Amino acid sequence: DGGITQSPKYLFRKEGQNVTLSCEQNLNHDAMYWYRQDPGQGLRLIYYSQIVNDFQKGDIAEGYSVSREKKESFPLTVTSAQKNPTAFYLCASSISGPGANVLTFGAGSRLTVL
Amino acid sequence: DQQVKQNSPSLSVQEGRISILNCDYTNSMFDYFLWYKKYPAEGPTFLISISSIKDKNEDGRFTVFLNKSAKHLSLHIVPSQPGDSAVYFCAASHSGTYKYIFGTGTRLKVLA
Question: How far, in Å, CA of A74 to CA of A55, rounded?
């Protein structure tokens, strides 16, 4: 079955630690995205990538970093510079071409900073 | 600046009746709109879409209406079922960008 796999589902982090969230897709999609969900704020775009070895900042990229070395993978690192990292993180992908494509989401990863 | 707004944070509807979820946008460049359904601790699942060349799109119990002059779209669910209870997000994008802007969501509760 094609889809998006995010891991881990739950992650706890101490303040000052970097953590990396994994996102893998087998849909052969070119574009991949990271969103963050907070209560009452909907989904906010962190980073997106249209093609391998290229990515763009979204609306709330500060304190995050990404890489896109393979088409299937788009890991997100939450660095210690992110002041309020506790949130639900969602990875998504779509076929190439902007504007008229449906996003397919993974099941999400919940990060809690202790 | 919230470009996509869902002004009703919650909605309760009796089973079998119609549910109407609303979404407003401010950017006239948006030309493609999506509705997603989300259960707690899960990823959103795609429901239905509409492009700006249409004013209505229907898929089973779900119909989306687009009023471009008012910059308003709505999702109708008829008849509503208890399994429809979830948070619904609308999202918008425009040609030439990969960015989808999401609203803040409306929590629908269908009462049995």
Answer: 10
- Which chain B residues in 23-82 lie under 8 Å from chain A, judged by CB atoms? 31-32, 34, 36, 41-46, 49, 51
Task: Report the alpha-carbon distance of residue A107 to residue B55 in Å, rounded.
Answer: 31
Q: What is the Cα–Cα distance from A100 to A95, expressed in whole angstroms?
A: 9
Euclidean distance between CA atoms A17 and A111, whole angstroms: 12
According to the 3-state scheme, what is the secondary structure of B1-45? CCCEECCCCEEEEECCCCEEEEEEECCCCCCEEEEEEECCCCCCE
Burial class (CB in 10 A: 0-12, 13-18, 19+), B65: middle
List, for residues A89-102, the tens digit of each pLDDT value: 999 999 876 556 88
Identify from A32, A33, A43 which residue to disrupt to test chain B contact, counting B C-beta atoms within 10 A and taking the largest count: A43
Residues of B in contact with A4 (CB under 8 A): 43
pLDDT tens column, B55-111 = 999 999 999 999 999 999 999 999 999 999 999 999 999 877 778 899 999 999 999
Helix (H, G, I), strand (E, B) or coil at B100: coil
